[in-house]
Design a protein that fits this description.
With about 280 residues, this protein is α/β, with parallel strands linked by helices. It has two domains: about 160 residues, Periplasmic binding protein-like II (D-Maltodextrin-Binding Protein, domain 2, 3-Layer(aba) Sandwich); about 90 residues, 3-Layer(aba) Sandwich (D-Maltodextrin-Binding Protein, domain 2). The protein is about 40% helix and about 25% strand. Strands 6, 7, 8, 9, 10 and 11 form a six-stranded mixed β-sheet that branches. A three-stranded parallel β-sheet has the order 4-1-5. The longest helix has 16 residues. It is elongated. The relative contact order is 0.18.
């Protein structure tokens, strides 16, 4: 009986984990999640519309899926997520794709799937311009704000341990919260991904002057988060990204959102080139 029950459970589980494309076809819409406050990768503009590098990648993916399903009028539904609920939103299939700055890790792959890589960044620390700190070791005895539950939090803890730096990690919920603590000198640094920290300063600094440390303490490989165990849907998403990389249309997306930071790094350029898979 136990074996029969397991077999029946497996059979009933199959339709739930392999029908994202069927659901999109029947509903005539794809549901995309994004996180506000993660400029230049994802944020809401003055009209409440999602914008950013990762958002544009998801729009390209949605267009590719519409073409694959022969649904030119496919609608796009956007759902605002938080860093804390994004993984569960994908697991519960509240969104089909999560479009922000999620780092692909092996532990997360127990819960969700990931697309091809979309960006390569590094973990860094933002400080006030008058801070004497230029590297992580200079923050010994200081307070560093970091969003709880992120790969950055874990990477920072590991980096502090490796470097034997005695700094206090202050958990926060959002980068904006950390920026305000830094502005008020309640913390001495704000840890996050380097490019995202630049985006926070550009969009939220209000004339304040900050600086980044000269070194990164981790590498962060971004990817679009997808429901687990749906190979057909993952292939459809990857097909859209690979086409973007192969055609070099990715250069326009990069220039639009990140061009003022300079050209893509050698590592990022190689990421685009290697992942421009042929059909």
């Amino acid at each position: 009986m136990r074996l029969l029950a397991l077999l029946l459970a497996g059979l009933f589980a199959l339709p739930a984990c392999a029908q994202t494309l069927d659901k999109i076809r029947k509903q005539g819409a794809i549901t995309l999640g994004y996180i506000d406050g993660a400029a230049p990768f994802s944020y809401a503009d003055g009209n409440g519309e999602p914008q950013g590098y990762s958002v544009d990648l998801c729009r390209a993916v949605a267009a590719g899926i519409a073409e694959q399903l022969k649904r030119p009028g496919l609608k796009t539904r956007w759902v605002k997520l938080t860093i804390q609920d994004r993984i569960e939103a994908v697991r519960a299939r509240k969104v089909d794709v999560e479009c922000s700055t999620t780092t692909s890790t092996l532990s997360r792959q127990k819960l969700v799937d990931f697309s091809l890589l979309t960006f390569v960044d590094g973990g860094s620390i933002l400080t006030r311009i008058d801070s004497p700190a230029n590297k992580l070791a200079d923050l010994g005895g200081r307070k560093i704000a970091v969003i709880r539950g992120t790969t950055t939090e874990r990477a920072l803890r590991d980096a502090l341990t490796r470097g034997m730096v005695q700094a206090e990690m202050v958990p926060i919920a959002t980068r904006d919260e950390g920026l305000e603590l830094l502005r008020q000198s309640k913390v001495d640094g704000l840890a996050s991904d380097r490019t995202t920290l630049i985006g926070v300063v550009v969009t939220r600094a209000k004339g304040d002057i900050f600086k980044l440390l000269d070194e990164d303490f981790s590498i962060e490989q971004y990817a679009l988060m997808l429901p687990r165990n749906d190979a057909d849907f993952r292939l459809a998403v990857n097909r859209g990204l690979a086409r973007l990389y192969r055609s070099r249309e990715i250069d326009k997306v990069y220039q639009k959102w990140l061009g003022r930071l300079g050209p893509p790094s050698i590592l990022l350029s190689a990421t685009y080139f290697i992942q421009g898979l042929s059909e």
